[in-house]
Design goal:
- The protein has 13 helices and 12 strands.
- Helix 8 links the parallel strand 4 and strand 5.
- Helix 2 crosses helix 8, helix 4 crosses helix 7 and helix 9 packs across helix 10.
- The longest helix is centred in the N-terminal third of the chain and has 32 residues.
- The termini are far apart.
């Protein structure tokens, strides 16, 4: 009996290692394909997206043996995200987070962010280490994408049936308990779908209903426009994304009667910050040194820089390495 068990275990381990090797090989091929070809080449463009999709699905599936140890624990997803976020450097995308202390200190909140591209999933994984406890949410249809769907469910992903209100509300109730009892955060795209153009779509009401019912704050997080991705031209260049965290918007004492006002307040604040960040990036793109600047994969500032970017003619960085803003941001870190 013991020999049979060991034989079966050896067989499982053997094919598990085969699967790991195969996935690694495919990922390497996608990486190579993403580096060859001219700018605007469709194959090169889709290879870059393929890297993230494949890395997310394969790693989530291969992580199943470890997810079984603590099934449905949202910390499983944090480990997966920490690995996948390393793909950012291969893709040539660097990220800069401001006001990080708000995300670090918040417990039990709904994080709302703008949705521009499928690459936003990489942005979420970049932030996961700062957010720590995140309740990952996905549409129910992904559950039936085998083997990724069941693997993600085991890893802690909460699936929402958008076509069945009662089922969706039960799922949101579970998420609310995680926020109020465990201090977790929900990460939601309030626009409901991607919008690759500049600006933001009208916000859906679901996240705001949940925030009011749970009486948890809303934390708006704004990503600058991904200027380096042009889907119609199949262009995916190297680029830099600035992420700014706005002050939390409290919901304590609010009722459903305040819903529309809460939505308008949140969207207006996010849109104003989005336009401000884009002006900063547009100004940087006119400066050759800013464009070519060697940046870490992920730079974290514990504070914001204020409304006006400050350029230094010597270091051409934001903030200037010799200005008072660097003193304010002295707790920054490179990753």
């Amino acid at each position: 009996m013991a020999e049979c068990f060991m034989c079966s275990l050896g067989w499982i381990l053997k094919y598990y290692l085969y699967a790991c090797a195969a996935c690694f090989g495919i990922f390497v091929l996608l990486t190579i394909f993403s580096k060859i070809g001219q700018r605007g080449n469709k194959f090169k463009y889709y290879s870059k997206y393929g890297m993230i999709y494949f890395a997310t699905q394969s790693l989530t599936t291969l992580f199943v043996p470890f997810s079984l140890v603590r099934a449905r624990n949202i910390d499983n997803c944090r480990i997966i995200a920490a690995v996948i976020s390393r793909c950012s450097k291969i893709l040539g995308i660097t990220w800069e987070l401001r006001n990080a202390q708000i995300l670090r200190q918040a417990k039990g909140a709904i994080v709302l962010t703008n949705h521009q591209s499928s690459m936003d999933i990489l942005g979420m994984m970049i932030l996961w280490g700062i957010l720590r406890k995140v309740v990952p949410i996905a549409k129910l249809e992904l559950l039936f994408l085998f083997p990724f769907g069941p693997s993600a469910w085991l890893g802690g992903v909460q699936y929402i049936n958008r076509k069945n209100r009662s089922s969706a509300m039960k799922a949101f109730d579970r998420c609310k308990r995680m926020m109020t009892e465990d201090g977790a955060k929900m990460y939601i795209y309030p626009e409901g779908t991607r919008y690759p153009e500049r600006g933001m779509l009208p916000f859906k009401k679901g996240a705001f209903h949940t925030a009011i019912e749970a009486q948890v704050p809303i934390i708006p997080v704004v990503f600058s426009h991904m200027y380096f991705i042009q889907s119609k031209k199949h262009i995916f260049d190297d680029g830099h994304v600035i992420i700014d965290t706005l002050e939390p918007i409290p919901t304590v004492g609010l009722t459903k009667a305040d819903l529309d006002q809460l939505i308008d307040r949140t969207r207006n604040a996010m849109l104003a910050k989005y336009e401000e960040l884009n002006r900063e990036v547009d100004a940087g793109l006119k400066n050759a040194q800013w464009v070519k600047q060697d940046r870490p994969r992920f730079k974290v500032y514990e504070v914001s820089f204020g409304k006006e970017p400050r350029w230094c003619p010597m270091c051409t960085q934001l903030p200037c390495l010799s200005c008072p803003l660097r003193t304010l941001g002295r707790k920054n870190s490179n990753r």
